[in-house]
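>> received
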Amino acid sequence: MLAAYHRLQESEVFKQWKLNHPAEYLSSCFTVVKKNTIAQWQFHYYNKQDDTITTFDVKKTTTQEAASKIFKKPGELVEELELDKVKISFEDALHKAESLSHPGEEFTEKIIILQQIQQPLWNISMISSTFNLMNIKISAISGEVLHESFDSLLSLRTTQP
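>> returned
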């Protein structure tokens, strides 16, 4: 993740954007792991003035998506992600989450977000081949498991009238 972040920082796309958006700050980092293959990393920058997020995709090249409205509860604060406080690596957090897995469950997709909610934390959601969802939040400072839940995705659906 840090290598992708450094590539973002060095890209011309980001440098030009940052010149025009000095007050926007890193709010989260995102990737998906499918069948043990990591997709590209995305980095989200938050704009307080208009409550939008600008996303940068870091692959072989870096691309910028147009700013979009953020999905959050009204009045909810989007905190700045302080990467210098992160002590637990992506690999260590993912390994810890996988060690908490339920026996017999094969998790085929993992959604990983590094975000700041009072502290930097890894928010890892793992989806199994039997449509179960395991969500784990791990402190990116101490490695402590802050939250763990396991639910059927089918039980989360709402019925249509």
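>> DSSP finds four helices and ten strands in the chain.
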